[in-house]
Amino acid sequence: MNSIFQDIPFVENPLYERIIDDIVTHKYAIVEDFFNDDEVEVLRQSLVDKHEENAFKKAAIGNRVNEVIVKSIRGDVILWIDESQANSAEKLFFDKINSLVDYLNKTCFLGILHKEFHYALYPTGTFYKRHIDTFNNDDRRKLSFVCYLNESGWLPENGGELVLYLDGDGKEMEKVIYPFPGRVVIFESQIIEHEVKPVNTERLSITGWLKTR
Ligand SMILES: O=C(O)CCC(=O)C(=O)O
Ligand SMILES: [Fe+2]
């Protein structure tokens, strides 16, 4: 019998399978070249244009109910991205994100229903102290997602490393991750404490969360 639920063949995606494996095993995944050079370029240009239009705001800590700006904790400026108003760069961004989210939902029963993403620019000298991405009054964030949009040739001496604090058999272990362009880091929002070390030059990214409910 024909039905609209006729089997659409499920095609295994090796990259997504690897991401899922890494998250299940290590609580985080690092993906090189999730966005290729051209994609990074258009996304960076979109960030830079909006920043030049003065659309960015100082980032706060806490959520929208409960937010305060504390420069001794975080110094980046951000702009939330509205998917319904996406420009061509942002459409390309959400196409890739949505493809991964669909796959996660088909294979992992994570139940991701919502997402939220913002551009972030860390001016020279800024940082984001050690923290966790969920709030006392809201635990819907399941996966944190950071996508780096820096120019190619990012040097370790630029600083701005993302440090994940992991559990290495009862002993804390630091995983240091450089914000190389095209690289994406995904981690469990409710578990992984992390920080952004001080930057010695501007540092550009898109950060977001995949959420339940
Ligand atoms: O930019 C990064 O590497 C991480 C940013 C972050 O931790 C956050 O925005 O919550
Ligand atoms: Fe964070």
Model description:
The protein has 213 residues and is α+β, with helices and mostly antiparallel strands. It has one domain: Jelly Rolls (Sandwich). The protein contains 3 helices and 11 strands; from the N terminus they run αβαββαββββββββ. The chain has helices spanning 14-26, 37-52, 88-108, and strands at 28-31, 57-58, 77-80, 114-122, 128-131, 141-148, 162-168, 171-177, 184-188, 193-196, 203-211. The strands form 2 sheets. A 7-stranded antiparallel β-sheet has the order 1-9-6-11-4-3-2. Helix 2 (37-52) crosses helix 3. The longest helix has 21 residues, at 88-108. 27% of the residues are buried. The model has no long low-confidence stretch (mean pLDDT 92). 2-oxoglutaric acid is lined by residues 120, 128, 133, 146, 162, 194, 196, 205, 207.
